[in-house]
Amino acid sequence: MALSRLRHPVICRAPLLIKARFLSSSSTRPSLIRGLNSTDVAESLLRPTSSSLVNGVHNDSSKIKFRIGVRNYSSAGLPEHTVLQMPALSPTMNQGNIAKWRKKEGDKIEVGDVICEIETDKATLEFECLEEGFLAKILVPEGSKDVPVGQPIAITVEDQDDIVNIPATISGSEAKEKPSSEQSLKQGESIQESSSVNIGTSELPPHIVLNMPALSPTMNQGNIAKWLKKEGDKIEVGDVICEIETDKATLEYECLEEGFLAKILAPEGSKDVAVGQPIAITVEDASDLEAVKASVSGDLSVKDESPVLQNTSKDVKTQKLSFSRISPAAKLLISEHGLDASSLTSSGPRGTLLKGDVLAAIKSGKGSVRVSGQQEKILSSPPVHSQTSSGKMVSKSTVQETGSYEDLPNSQIRKVIAARLLESKQSIPHLYLSTDVVLDPLLSFRKELKAKYDVKVSVNDIVIKAVAVALRNVPEANAYWDAKTDEIVLCDSVDISIAVATEKGLMTPIIRNADQKSISSISLEVKELAEKARVGKLKPNEFQGGTFSISNLGMFPVDHFCAIINPPQAGILAVGRGNQVVEPVIADDGTEKPAVVTKMHLTLSADHRVFDGKVGGTFMEALRSNFSDIKRLLL
Predict the structure, then answer these.
(1) Which of 19, 331, 410, 460 has a 20 to 30 A CA-CA distance from 99?
(2) Are strands 548-552 and 496-498 parallel, antiparallel or unpaired?
(3) Residue 620 pLDDT > 90
């Protein structure tokens, strides 16, 4: 297979690697918030997307999301206090507004008291406090908008005398961390479990650690397809040491320094190796090879884990609740959804099961359904059959269980396609517009090009040109939605992405400035890019980007379909096959006569944030005009 060559300077000296590793591990340790300033909350230590606010939670946003209070013990003169955070009051909520504070600073709070009203993406809900105490400090004032889930909104204390010890202005530097020994132990265990590579740095000679590179913007892991160098081989500058299968293609990984390949940490065939994970070690001197091999042990290969069989009947009897108290809202959700309370994990103060815990279990599918006593008896009782019927049933079930299905491993490309299509349908409001175009002028134009100029073009080539000209005439359709600024961004060029099916998955090579190119040049470029896509030779600049996509299934017996938008683009045109239909047409003498015409069905899938009805209708009108007068594409 011919492969794209891509230089990527992703080497680092060993001391830097070790330093980075310790920094990354320390960034995941839980933070204990002891004192906050309302002006420092959003800027300093309170970043719920980057730091954990819950003890024992490491980079688990779902758990952080539903945590309401964090108990803190200060060593900087502050009393014991609890930080109340913006809760996730619905599965889709990621921010909320403080509609009204029911309690004022200094007020007494009883268990179950409503301290404030929070406006979510669904409704305005009451925020109950699950511990008694006193409201010492309001960090987010009434009327605050778009407060992220997990951001502290208030501080409470148990003793009224401690209110005066909470300063009116608290700097972020006063909140010092004091992780417990248990947390440190868990942190150490998680660091050891994150990688099976053991490097004795004190015994290593000067060396370079090669990490898994990020070879595309969407790549977060890759597979080691093949090692072209073996341990001990000499490496020159520019030598290809391995082939890496990314989410887009298989690329060659060049080494940018000469030396010797001392140790391969990720063997050939390793799957889902994270970007930044060490995959090999090189040394400058051949005499250091044995020292590295002796000091480094382990690899990144996935270890086989044998399943552990458990006695489920005993587990059912010995199941205990993981919480000591439960909020009224959580109890209502459990009864409504018929969940087994013993399968839920609490995150509230003093082991309280919160509404957010139940919502998280429902969303993740971890909450098991409760089985009634009558159902348990039916399930536990053995079926009673005659000997002959039971024998037949066993034999039939055995036949059905053996060889009834086969697991097909997914390539990186298909994994990314699945993730991006799911993200597109979940995050982009799709608007669908359909129309039929008469294909006869296009087919006549093809024959004319072949007869007069000996130029062979496909229907798809002319469709690309027609769509590009329509986008040029309707620039509002050649745009995308910027999620960071919540604005529509108009594109300067018309770059058409073409869906090409390959063995590894769907690729979308790009015809750049398609509105400015002739149909013949578009045809040649499409053939070249499609061949590159099938053999895995596409360069990143040939498939990254694009302002609009076309998916053509006209070569199959597909009359019409709806395509899924390829983000961050805002539109994709689904093209069906041409069908001959009988329609009334106006003859030269002004009378209607039946005639056979060839029609093709087009369906536009558009981002409704960019396309409203007017923009979509104008684009489809311009597209139909291009098909009715095909020669205007030559202008």
Answers:
(1) 331
(2) parallel
(3) yes
**How far apart (Å, rounded) are the C-alpha atoms in residues 477 and 472?**
9
3-class SS of residue 395:
helix
Residue 468 has pLDDT above 70, yes or no: yes
Distance CA 126, CA 300 (A): 49
Distance CA 345, CA 323 (A): 7
| CA–CA–CA angle 85, 86, 92 (5° rounding) | 140
Q: Report residue 455's pLDDT band, with 50, 70 and 90 as the boundaries.
A: confident
Tokens, residue 610: 């960019």
DSSP, collapsed to helix, strand or coil, labels residue 628 as helix
| Sign of the C-alpha dihedral computed for residues 36, 39, 45 and 48 taken in this order | positive
Kindly list the strands in the beta sheet with 108-109, ordered across the sheet, starting from the edge strand earlier in the chain: 69-72, 81-85, 152-157, 133-138, 108-109
pLDDT-derived band at 366, boundaries 50, 70, 90 = low
pTM for the full predicted model = 0.47
Question: Which one of 60, 482, 612, 629 is the catalytic residue?
Answer: 612
81 as an active site residue: the answer is no
Distance CA 213, CA 221 (A): 9
Concatenated DSSP letters for 447-460? HHHHHHH-----HH
Cα 200 from Cα 197, distance rounded (Å): 10
The helix or strand, by DSSP H or E, that contains position 598, with its residue range, turns out to be strand 592-607
Beta strands in 86-175 (DSSP E): 95-101, 108-109, 114-119, 124-128, 133-138, 147-148, 152-157
What's the longest Cα–Cα distance across the chain?
Answer: 100
Model pLDDT, residue 345? 79
Nearest to 52 by CA among 86, 83, 24, 28: 28
Helical (H) or strand (E) element with 374: helix 373-380
Q: Whole-angstrom distance between the N-terminal and C-terminal Cα of the chain?
A: 41
Output the pLDDT for position 275.
Answer: 86
* CA distance linking residue 304 with residue 308, whole number of Å: 12
What is the residue-wise DSSP string for 231-243? TT-EE-TT-EEEE
Of 60-64, 69-73, 619-623, minimum mean pLDDT range: 60-64
Establish whether 612 is a catalytic residue. Answer: yes
The DSSP call for residue 286 is G
Give the residue among 572, 457, 575 at the shortest CA–CA distance from 525: 457
- Digit-coded pLDDT (tens) for 333-346: 887 777 777 777 77
Which ranges constitute the DSSP H helices of 207-339?
A: 289-295, 312-318, 328-337
In the predicted model, what is the mean pLDDT of the chain? 74
Distance, in Å, from the CA atom of 481 to the CA atom of 462, rounded to the nearest integer, reads 28
DSSP string, 320-365: --S-SEE-HHHHHHHHHHTB-GGG----SGGGEEPHHHHHHHHHHT
Do the beta carbons of residue 237 and residue 258 sit within 8 Å? yes
Orientation angle between helical segments 613-628 and 440-453, nearest 10 degrees: 40
Chain CA centroid to CA 128, Å: 33
Q: What are phi and psi of 613, to 5 degrees?
A: -60, -40
With residue 280 as reference, give the H or E element that holds it.
strand 278-283
Burial, 607: exposed, middle or buried (Cβ in 10 Å; 0-12, 13-18, 19+)?
Answer: buried
474 pLDDT band, cuts 50/70/90, is very high
Question: Tell me: the pLDDT tens digits for 52-67?
Answer: 333 333 333 333 333 3
Tokens 């959580």 belong to 330
- What single-letter DSSP state applies at residue 296? E
